[in-house]
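Batch manifest, entry 17 of 40.
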Amino acid sequence: MKSKLLSFLMLLFTMLLLPGTAFAGETSTIDTGDTSFILICAALVMIMTPGLALFYGGMVRKKNVLSTIMLSFIVMSVVSIIWVLYGYTLAFGPNSNDFIGGLDYLFLQGVGQEPAAGGTIPHLLFMVFQLMFALITVAIITGSIAERMRFSAFLVFIVIWSSLVYAPLAHWVWGGGWLMKLGALDFAGGTVVHISSGVTGLVAALVIGKRKGYGSEPMVPHNLPMTVLGAALLWFGWFGFNAGSALGANGLAASAFAVTHIAAAAGGLAWVLTEWFSHGKPTVLGCISGAVAGLVAITPAAGFVSAMPALIIGLVVGPLCYFAVAIAKTKFGYDDSLDAFGIHGVGGTWGAIATGLFASTSVNPAGADGLFYGNSSLLVNQLIGVSATILFTSLATFVILKLISTFVSLRVSADDEVVGLDISVHGENAYAYTDDFIGSFTREIKVSNESPKTMVKTV
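Output type: structure tokens
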């Protein structure tokens, strides 16, 4: 009797426990594998902004290297705070309309450890992952205005631009806005990141004007190894940029990872061959510029195309961006200092259009087939997305810059520009130790009565 009673109580306890256990299994949709993967990808995308700082820093003149690096790092601070306060909710808040997100996530209210709607990662992680995209987008713009924009004006600009341009664009494409409803595809940021930053850079370069001495003085990179290191970090981080946009450790992420590398390799080779034939010499700067152009072009298509289309996208973007940099700047006379428009604007545009040509539902059933797979409507949607991004970004940037210029000058004084922004704006010298060492060493050689010719050779 006792044993029967005990069995009954155990059965009753089990019956009471099972519904609770089942309920817990149904509500908890966080996948630890996906979460681990996106944590790593978010860190990879984050390292792209310091990588860009080195990429740009090596390409400017020695007197402006720190000021150029500073622009990317201050973006990381300012935009991160904006994103936490209200940027994220404007981009990804519940769709109050087709143009801007609602305020449900203001100050990250309601953004916690629970999974985002329909996702398998914590909502907080999704927010951080998207923040890294916002950072690199604003940092890219600095390549067009390097060596001449006033630091205070730039600070005001990034606050307004990230709030009124980037956040709405992200909502249009990824947050349930009108371009998403239209069916335009942008897997990891062709329009949101690259076209918007490249076009913004071009408008800013036109409004601010050319660098002093542009066209009459040599303005060559002062430290190409630094630029190569920056390019390597960008290439490395881009795997998180594109593969992470699958938002899970799955086959789609693997596909995006593979095509990202293929397009970058093809872009680097195509640029080198193009400049070799047209200029006579294959350059290291050309190789890494082509690789970055390939990475830019594959970004919107990464989750929608297979290996062979990725190869074609890279092979086309290399010559396309080379001529945009080598010929268009000379022909039209604008000073896009570090070719943000020539690589990101032009490369992003080609990538968005190529998505409309090569996208296939065999790669991603959630996407759409492109023109070469019998669906011309996707190409039309892509062209609408590109046109809307260019129009909105260029007009908004022009208005923002003109508004700021009524309160503060957009560029530094002529004297400060000649001295260099490292000293005149930040009071620092990137190579102070090196210069002091060489000066001291030179004095020691002079004391030893060596000839000037020997002295120079020794130094």
